[in-house]
Amino acid sequence: MEELQNKKAIIISTHDFEDTELIYPYYRLKEAGADVKIAALERGTIRGKHGIEVAAELSIKELNADDYDSVIIPGGWAPDRLRVYKEVLDFVAEMNRKGKLIAAICHGPHVLISAGVVKGVKLTAVKPLWDDLKNAGATVQNEAVVRDGNIVTSRFPPDLPQFCKEIISVLSKT
Q1: What count of other Cβ atoms lies within 10 Å of the Cβ of residue 167?
Q2: Per-domain residue ranges for the chain?
Q3: Which of 4, 19, 98, 169 could form a disulfide with 50 if both were Cys (CB 3.0 to 4.6 A apart)?
């Protein structure tokens, strides 16, 4: 399957990510032919909530929105850490300004709130984020996957197959 050949995706995370929400999209997009990289606050190994370790090939400071077709933000506790870093928020906001795909699952939309990209947008997330999303001006829908323009969101790990299918669908048409 090579439908995403020449497409570049960056997964942004840090320690305590939800393991499946990083690993599943990483391998699914690679399987579809995309060039997928992982970025963290610093280059090196980051560890998920359940112990999976992955190599962050890039630091957030090295990212340029012109170099990627999409950004994916897994959930877990990592988004709460990421959302306070200006470099992360600036990158996500720039991806949004350029109309590039932004995908977030579970607690990942916390980063979207802090980046200021959810006002007037329909999306979903894990239920504890719904009030935060509404307060930031988003319209929350309780569905496995919600796409509004260039933003794709999902609720939690059982939604991963639909989440990745939508990401691949969007990227294959850009």
Answers
A1: 26
A2: 8-172
A3: 19
Q: What is the pTM of this model?
A: 0.97
- Residue whose pair of structure tokens reads 């190599």 in the numeric block: 55
Which pLDDT tens digit goes with each residue over 38-70?
Answer: 999 999 999 999 999 999 999 999 999 999 999
Instruction: From 125, 92, 122, select the one nearest 12 (Cα to Cα).
Output: 92
Tally Cβ neighbours within 10 Å of residue 51: 7
Strands 58-59 and 35-40: parallel
Q: Which candidate in 15, 50, 107, 110 is catalytic?
A: 107
Query: Which of the following is catalytic: 50, 106, 110, 164?
Result: 106
Active site residue 164: no
Give SS3 for 133. Answer: helix
Q: How many CB atoms lie within 10 A of CB 114?
A: 22
CATH tag, 8-172: 3.40.50.880
Rounded Cα–Cα distance for residues 161 and 158 (Å): 7
Q: What are phi and psi of 82, to 5 degrees?
A: -65, -35
